[in-house]
Each structure stands twice: as structure tokens, then as C-alpha cells.
Give the backbone structure.
Amino acid sequence: MPTVLVVEDERDIREVLRRYLERAGFSVLTTGSGAEALKLFASADLVLLDLGLPDIEGTDLLREIKALGTLPVIVLTARSSTEERIRGLELGADDYVTKPFSPHEVVLRVQAVLNRRGGSSDDNDIATYGGNRLRIDEDSHRVWLDDVELDLTPTEWGLLSAIAAAAGRVYSRYELVNRVRGYEYEGYERTIDSHIKNLRRKLGADGAQVVETVLGVGYRLGFTRDEARR
Ligand code: CA
């Protein structure tokens, strides 16, 4: 399930895009701030970037993303600003959408850019971790530890699936809330801890080893991902 990061300071647009993208099967991260976006790029497979942000010049952000690697970016611009659009393409944007846009069109463009990149992997792959101890099926949302299937709530599933997406990488509570609950409410971060606690209990004796605490930072998957069998 590819992750799309929506960077857009207008909340309504952000939430509409989230809804449409999630319905199309994407995992979605959102932020209205360029500074927050810088912390979230590492988790994204594609960025939808509004060039008119309040805190950082959108084109600077775009330049920064493109300097970091090959992450595809679709730029959102106002209809009037042809110059902005050209500037975006010059800086390496993969596509652009002018406002006001149809969210459906945005979803189609996201899919097109990702397909062009050949990003779609086998659909029925079950990812395994820790030497086949932990198995996660993203399509059916099923999880097994040591061949025992776990019965997880949607939130617990979301948390596990999120930290397993980049095994070993540390996820902050802020990012986990954003990813799993679909909003950016700081006060909610604390409840992540209680969901993690329940998740660990279901994982059994090795719960704290599978979902590791990184003090002062957040959580990460304690298992490494096994080499894909091809
Ligand atoms: Ca804007």
C-alpha cells in the first residue's frame, strides 16, 4: 500500500484529498506545514505538494525533496500562476494539478505517476520479519506471530503495519497518530501509548521486542524484514 504525503495548508482540501486517496487504497499522511513535511518525507512514496505554503516557499521544499532522492512529487498550484507551474516542472515535479481540481483527477494522476515509476509490487506478497517469525499480509490485514494469527483492532493493525513499513526506522507518536487516525492532533499522541500496550499484549511474551520503545522518540519494529523470496 503506497503512502502519499499531502502537504497543503488548506484543511478542507487536505481532508478531501485524504478521503479520496484512502478510498483508492493509499495510505495517507497529511500536514499543513512545510517544516512538518520535512519530517515526513522519509515515509512517503509520493508527495502532493501545494506550492503556496505559509511557512516555507513551496519551490524550496520541492528543491529539497528532489535533492534528497527520487521521491515523486505532484505539485498543486493556483490556476492563475503559470509561472509557478513552470517553475515546479523545472525543479523536477513529476506532474502538476491546478486548483480548483477534482479530487478524482488527483487520484488518477497519483496512480499514473506511481505506475510510471513501476512502483506497484506483487499484490499477494506477505511480508515476513525476524526470520519468518512475524508475517503481515497488507491486503487482507492479517498478522501472524510464530504461526499464530493475531486478532487486532483496526488501530492496532494500523500501528503495526505503519512501523513495519520501514522496519527498524523509528516512528514518532505524532507520525503514528497522523498515519493511523488520519488527523494531526497533538493531544492524541498520548493514547498511542495505550494502543501500543494492547498491541504488545496480543503479541505475547515478545511484545516489547517486536514493538520496541525508543526513549524520547517513539516506536520501531524490533525485527528486520526478511529478504524477499523471488
Ligand atoms: Ca496554500
Residues 8 and 154 are 27 Å apart (CA to CA). Confidence is low (pLDDT under 50) at residues 119-123. The chain has two domains: 3-115, 123-221.
